[in-house]
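> call design_seq(struct)
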């Protein structure tokens, strides 16, 4: 187990032990408890009542956060011809088919990859490299598409992908501690709405079991999950 310093333990002591908070109070406390010298990322962890070992209980999807993540995503588009020009005009950071070979050679300086369907024969060769890193484009996430302009603009606007892990938890960034409480609350609300809509039909019992927000270096702060169960 990692050892935490004095500042972390002091922050943890200020987190309510026997109660949960409203979303606004929770994100406000996360901001107050942040102590690092850099602009920490604020993250949400959602515990779900699903069994990810079954394909029909996988929870995954995308959401465009109203206020973005506070990080400018580097977007690679594998396309050619008019679609390559469309990607460049939309603001993609890297465009071209030659990046397939560069990735095989070890280059991975991007956060999202978008590919047109006709390029997937080549991009598919990168599955073993990109898959484990969560960088493989897929039709479900909207990153395999001929609508390159829309895909790039959504990512640049704050689109994030999420997927339940093997323990039934979903983790996602919802901003920075420099964001206002209102911005963080709105981003959290948009994320939770998407999580609720992504509930698998095969999920039994209580779906939403816990919600916690935290900063990169700080302790988790529990949010009242009932606020979202009523939605």
């Amino acid at each position: 187990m990692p050892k935490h310093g004095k500042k972390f333990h002091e922050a943890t002591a200020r987190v309510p032990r026997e109660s949960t908070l409203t979303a606004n109070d929770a994100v406000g406390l996360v901001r107050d408890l942040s102590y690092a010298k850099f602009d920490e990322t604020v993250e949400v962890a959602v515990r779900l009542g699903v069994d990810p070992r079954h394909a029909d209980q996988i929870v995954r999807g995308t959401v465009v956060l109203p206020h973005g993540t506070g990080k400018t995503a580097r977007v690679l588009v594998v396309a050619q011809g008019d679609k390559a020009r469309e990607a460049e005009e939309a603001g993609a950071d890297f465009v071209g088919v030659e990046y397939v070979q560069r990735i095989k050679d070890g280059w991975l300086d991007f956060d999202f990859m978008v590919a047109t369907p006709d390029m997937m024969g080549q991009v598919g060769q990168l599955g073993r490299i990109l898959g484990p890193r969560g960088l493989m484009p897929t039709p479900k996430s909207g990153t395999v598409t001929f609508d390159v302009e829309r895909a790039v603009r959504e990512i640049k606007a704050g689109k994030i992908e999420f997927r339940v892990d093997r323990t039934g938890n979903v983790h996602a960034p919802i901003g920075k501690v420099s964001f206002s409480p209102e911005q963080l609350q709105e981003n959290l609300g948009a994320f939770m709405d998407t999580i609720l809509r992504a509930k698998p039909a095969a999920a039994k019992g209580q779906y939403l079991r816990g919600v916690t927000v935290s900063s990169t270096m700080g302790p988790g702060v529990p949010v009242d999950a009932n606020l979202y169960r009523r939605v």
